[in-house]
Write a structure and sequence with these properties.
This protein is α/β, with parallel strands linked by helices. About 45% of the residues lie in helices and about 15% in strands.
């Protein structure tokens, strides 16, 4: 199999870095970008980036931000930033690559969402709404490409051992006075697995959905939480 060109947004750390490493190990050409390389919320920047990149075989929409607050204390800035990065960014990148994929009748689009994109979670109104939007976007794209060689799917992990989760731990500590160990145990306990996921586990799911042989899987939101969400 010839090498594929893979674009991973938010691909320089955490889950994105694990995804990029998995594809590189398989011999693919990987373009892993962070905010410094391309602001996924900037329409002109996204268009220019994909013009330079050329044909893309697999797009992984992984760029994301998170914040937590009770709804009454959620700021407009928090809401807008969550929507911009988690949902609008996925829209811009998907829109940029989709015509080329359809013209070649081949392509895989995988969005890294969250279990928060499948069920409501307290104190995460902006993040949860944005991840629901991202999952909805993929389901719509999947409906449009059904019957072609292109698929669109999402992976929805629970809490993963990443910088974002570490920030959540620090927030819990600051607000509740718990220790970092207690705060992490609280988050881990929200996964039916009873532990935080490893980024490599998310990368494995992305790799499956991006595989050329996965063409029958389209419009799925794959929960990675150990069995808590049907």
């Amino acid at each position: 199999m010839s090498a594929r060109r893979i674009v991973v947004t938010g691909g320089t750390r955490g889950i994105g870095a694990a995804i990029a490493a998995r594809f590189r190990a398989a011999g693919d050409e990987v373009i892993a970008i962070g905010h410094a390389e391309c602001d996924v919320t900037d329409e002109a920047a996204v268009a220019a980036f994909f013009d330079r990149t050329g044909p893309v075989d697999v797009l992984v929409n992984n760029a994301g931000v998170a914040s937590s607050a009770p709804l009454a204390k959620t700021t407009v800035q928090q809401w807008q930033k969550a929507m911009a990065v988690n949902a609008f960014g996925a829209f811009l990148c998907t829109r940029a690559v989709l015509p080329g994929m359809l013209s070649r009748d081949s392509g895989r689009i995988v969005t890294v969402a969250s279990t928060a994109g499948l069920a409501g979670t307290r104190y995460t109104a902006a993040y949860t709404a944005a991840k629901h939007a991202a999952v909805g976007l993929m389901r719509t794209v999947a409906a449009e490409v059904a019957g072609t060689g292109v698929t669109a799917n999402a992976v929805c992990p629970g809490f993963v051992r990443t910088d974002l989760t570490a920030e959540s731990v620090r927030t819990i500590v600051a607000r509740t006075g718990r220790t970092a160990q207690e705060a992490e145990a609280t988050l881990a306990g929200m996964n039916p697995l009873g532990r935080l996921l490893d980024p490599a586990e998310v990368a494995a799911a992305v790799g499956y959905l991006a595989d050329p042989g996965s063409g029958a899987v389209n419009g799925r939101a794959l929960a990675l939480d150990g069995g808590g969400i049907p």
